[in-house]
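Assemble and predict.
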Amino acid sequence: MKILKIFIIIFLSIGFSNLKSDEQNDELKSKILKNIRCLICQGQSVYDSESEFASSIKLIVDRKINEGLKEEKIYDFLRKKYGDWVIYDPQLNKKTYILWLLPLLLFLFGGAIMIKKLKFKN
Amino acid sequence: MKNKFRLFIVITFLSFCFIVFYKGLNNVNTYTPGIKDKKNIPIFQAKNFDSDIYLNSEKIFEENIFYIVNIWASWCVPCREEHPLLMKLNKNQSIKLIGLNYRDNLSNAKNFINEFGNPYSQIIIDDDGTLSVEFGAYGVPETFIIDKNKQIIRKFIGPINKDIIEEIKSIIK
């Protein structure tokens, strides 16, 4: 009887851990798919698109996650195939320095003007 | 003087914005992935069109010649347009045409080949579209030129035409 109980506990714990890992994989898959641009219907993400291209990408992402590839590696794979544009979230590189740094510079510039005005008022 | 300077700055800034947005209006707003650098062909296994045998990419591209990979489907209307040109291209002895049948019904694909002729020396099946993704394609028809080093050197999106045929001929010379 004891052995049976232990067996059931082990069986259930394996089942739960598999369920949890499936849930984590599904979350990761959704996150990745929402960040990939559909090249057929270019206003949509692959997650939202029902195009044939999108369904192939969904299969590829699923396969890559099951192979144990990390999120960034999957993006790298897609970038190699279709270029940077296929990913919604742009990487920080030579081409995107202005894109990333301009808002920060504008923020600093605006902040400096505000501080100067406030000091002037005081 | 100070006000004039401010006005000048504002007008310059607005003119700059106008030029940027006006130029942007004329730009094509659809993205087409091209090939800037040569890419190695993907390593894959694919089912043969005529049998249930699976073929390795090394086996498919084993000869030291140029290969043309054409992605096609029986349901794709532009594929019908380009098919006669592929039949002509097939006569060139220095290249081999590989057909990649994309997300198709096998019997419809076979009817297509029986009706329009078979320009391909080998046809492989991509029933879920993932093999086309490995090639960097996103639709049908697409055509790739693979050189003797087994690298993709050129990619044509959409049906091939006479100009493209001439370009292919000049590349493989």
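The first strand of chain B starts at residue 39 and ends at 40.
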